[in-house]
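Field reference: sequence -> structure
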Amino acid sequence: MNNSDAYVGHPENLYVLGAWLAYERTRQGYSLRGLARGASVAPSLVSAIENQKTLPNVDTLQYLYAALHHTFVLDDAYLSSVNENIQALYYATYDQNESAIQHLTNALIPQFSKLKYSPLSVELILVEAFIQIHFQEKTVSEAFLALANHLAHLNLVQRQRYYLNLGFLKWHAGDVPSARAAFSEVITLHRESRAHAVALTMLAKLSSADYQIVQALEYAERASKLHAKYSNLFRKIEADFVAIKSYIEMHQLTSASSIIQSLSYVLVETNTTYWNELQSFKAYVAYRSHDYHSCIDYLSSIPEKSLFQAILEAQAHIHLNNRDIAKARYHALALKYPKTTSPHQAHLLRLLDVQFSENPVDQDAFEYFIQSYDRFEHLHIVQTLLSVLREYASRTGHYEILDPLMKISLNLMLFDKNRL
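Structure field:
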């Protein structure tokens, strides 16, 4: 077989390997002419390859890297086997096949150094970053970061994987705007794929967290259809959950109930996490429908309630005039979330406590809410606080708090003009 004509990898990736040649040559102290002499090629060719002016063939790269004491692997059968493992890892991760993920990761890790210089170099850099972000320390190699300078020489699949990796990297670092931009790049590449579906799901979640409800719903519905196309039930459920939440917050309860009913047919109680989340949504719909008894019944089936679920239950008791029960629930939550270790939750609970007191609003908690309301994980919690504080102002005559509350209400409308 002629190595110049047949090998595993995207041909234009060889431009990237040519550009890296300059870095490795400089690192080892070779001049351009010295490297050319060692590889028995013209200096002008080395210069053109390093500056990405010409597409090198694999034989030339093999000679050049050999002159730098690196093995440039061209065993097509071996490279094909590694490439199959790379693709299998992506599919196993999408399908959440834990045993396959572990096996394939263990098989690939030794290849990162062995095939550092090969036609699979770019694929290996991308999958190494994928493993580091999802299964290891959530940091990536300099080689991955350097790919930003060579995106024009990556194929469409590789660019999607690059931006998906970048999105998760930024998300884990807490840089939400950059994460959103990277996930958006995945879908603007106009290639339906599993990466596309995952990016849509992440954009749906990020939009929901920013209270951009209509946008969250649009992303979630597109993601759900793609996950169904790839026959992945649980990833579809994740997208459907965002859609349900969006419909409820838009008060389109019939649409939310329709998705809930469909999921009820496929989810079973043995899948605790998803089942409990489904019960929570049923409770949320019941609450918005003023069916507070059903809301409490649904939530009673969840043994370990989230803060949102606990607040929903307590507020349902208040609507049923079970104020002593609600007060006890909030007292238990205050013990669970002390100010010393959970300041965010503690401020929230101290504001909700005004439902049982004529005392002035805790000023520190109130200022925290006014300045940080967009950090609350659930729009319903913000709406509940607004309602509770308005009622408190009306009941006690502390009307001075209404103006900042009105500003929050207006800002929420500006987050998503179509939400209401």
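Note: The radius of gyration is 28 Å.
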